[in-house]
Design a protein that fits this description.
single chain, 272 residues, globular, 14 helices, 2 domains, mainly alpha, Farnesyl Diphosphate Synthase
Length: 272
C-alpha cells in the first residue's frame, strides 16, 4: 500500500517514462480528472506491454490477458495480481507489475469504467495474439485498432461523463483513438516489419493507410467539436495536433516531428 501523494508521484513518473505524448496533456488536467485519466492510461499501458512483449511466448500472453479480462473488479488488488504475475515477474516491465497501484490511484467513482475498458482491451488483445496479428482487410484493421486504441477513446468519453457530465458520440470517440493509432502504424512501419509484424491490409501501401488515417482524424475533429469543457478540449487537441503534424512530416518524407515542433504545438493549444 502506497500513500496517495507517493502514488501520485509514482504514477506521473511512470506516465512520463512510458508515454511523453500522453504525459503532456495529462499534466495540464485539473485534479480528479488528472488522476482518473492517468490511472486509466497506466492500466491500459500495463495490458499493452503484455501484448507487445518481445520475449513472452504467445500462449503466455494469451493466458495472462484472458485471466485479466475475466478477473472480477474486486480482485484487481496487489495480492491477486502478484499471484497472477508471479511466473512472469522477471519478464514483465514495472508498469505491468504495478497494475494494482494504478487501479488504487484511480478515483473511486471512475474505477468501474476504467476496469471495464481495461478488461475489454485485454480480451481483444488476447484474440489478436491468437490471430498472430494477421490483418487482411480494413474490417480486421478496424477491429484490431478498436481494441488497442478505440477503447482508449471510449474510456476518455467515460471519464468526461464522470467528471462533469460531458456527453460525446461513442463512434467518434473510437475514431479519435483509432486515428492516433494509425498515425503510429504509418510511422512505425519499418520497425514493425523488422519484428515480423504488418498491420497493413492486403494490397495496401502508404497512400491507402494515409487515407484511412485522415478519415479517422477528421472524425476526431468532429469528436472535439462536441465538447464544451476547455480542459477536456485542450487534452484532446494536444495529441490530435501532434498526430496531424506527424502525418504532415511523413508525407514530406521525414520520420517524425522534432522536440521544438512538439513544444510549439503544445504551447499553441494551451494558449489558445
Amino acid at each position: 500500500m502506497t500513500d496517495k501523494s507517493d502514488l501520485h508521484t509514482k504514477a506521473m513518473d511512470f506516465l512520463l517514462k512510458t508515454s511523453r505524448t500522453f504525459f503532456i496533456p495529462i499534466s495540464y488536467l485539473p485534479k480528479g480528472l488528472q488522476e482518473g485519466i492517468g490511472a486509466a492510461y497506466l492500466c491500459m499501458r500495463a495490458i499493452d506491454e503484455i501484448e507487445d512483449h518481445p520475449n513472452l511466448p504467445a500462449d503466455s500472453k494469451v493466458s495472462l490477458l484472458q485471466a485479466l479480462s475475466e478477473l472480477p473488479d474486486a480482485d484487481f488488488k496487489e495480492e491477486h495480481l502478484q499471484k497472477l504475475f508471479e511466473p512472469y515477474k522477471d519478464e514483465l516491465p514495472e508498469v505491468t507489475l504495478f497494475l494494482s497501484d494504478w487501479v488504487e490511484f484511480c478515483p473511486p467513482g471512475a474505477k468501474g469504467k476504467v476496469l471495464e475498458s481495461t478488461k475489454e482491451m485485454a480480451e481483444g488483445m488476447a484474440k489478436w495474439v491468437i490471430k498472430d496479428w494477421q490483418i487482411h482487410n480494413e474490417e480486421e484493421l478496424d477491429d484490431y485498432t478498436y481494441y488497442v486504441a478505440g477503447l482508449v477513446g471510449v474510456m476518455l468519453s467515460d471519464m468526461w461523463n464522470w467528471y462533469d457530465g460531458t456527453e460525446t458520440d461513442r463512434e467518434l470517440a473510437i475514431a479519435f483513438g483509432r486515428g492516433l493509432q494509425t498515425v503510429n502504424i504509418l510511422r512505425n512501419r519499418e520497425e514493425d516489419a523488422e519484428r515480423g509484424v504488418n498491420f497493413y491490409p492486403d494490397g495496401w501501401g502508404f497512400d491507402e493507410m494515409l487515407a484511412h488515417t485522415e478519415r479517422n482524424l477528421a472524425l476526431a475533429d468532429a469528436y472535439i467539436e462536441e465538447i464544451e469543457t476547455k480542459d477536456i478540449i485542450q487534452f484532446c487537441k494536444i495529441p490530435l495536433e501532434l498526430a496531424k503534424a506527424t502525418l504532415k512530416a511523413l508525407k514530406e518524407g521525414k520520420e517524425k516531428i522534432d522536440r521544438a515542433t512538439v513544444t510549439e504545438i503544445v504551447s499553441q493549444v494551451v494558449e489558445h
